[in-house]
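Box 3.1 — From sequence to structure: Elongation factor 1-beta
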Amino acid sequence: MGFGDLKSPTGLQLLNDFLADKSYIEGYVPSQADIAVFEAVSGPPPADLYHALRWYNHIKSFEKQKSSLPGVKKALGKYGPADVEDSTGSGAADSKDDDDIDLFGSDDEEESEEAKRLREERLAQYESKKSKKPALIAKSSLLLDVKPWDDETDMAKLEECVRSIQADGLVWGSSKLVPVGYGIKKLQIQCVVEDDKVGTDMLEEQITAFEDYVQSMDVAAFNKI
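Predicted structure (token representation):
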């Protein structure tokens, strides 16, 4: 697996195709996987590779806190589409198939009928795979502030209630308790939602329904991804 040379047009095209239905290289939140791939790209991808450009600009915004993102960096060849071999030497063997058959023909000798047939089959398979790519799903990353009634509220139970909310298109992320004064702490929790399926109004309604623990809910940050 791998993207190959991410400084080349071919590598960037593979990255763009890979991100057509994904927000991140791995998982649902920014991680060291994104940083590893980001650092292998020489600069912003061209405007026509809009999936890769969207991802590049989003990961660039985490530059100051990149060391604190979750996960462990792996060799570059460990990331990317499983059906593409890494030719950079970072984690995959050289492709024998590519050495045996020149997909673009040879200037030195006449292309055999068998080589032509294999080249056309591979190009047809690649075009078929591209045509079956699912449409891009619009997603947003939310940071929610959930406030308790007082300093005696069981915050572990409050978080348990919040995370018990399950819906198609909703994925809960990391959380922490943030002091707000007078011994009171609020729950700050991250989630990723599919815009067409989950809205902030729905989240607020369900979270504040736990009225024994929750006083209010606010959206502290809202980012399209």
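Summary of the box: The first helix runs from residue 9 to 18.
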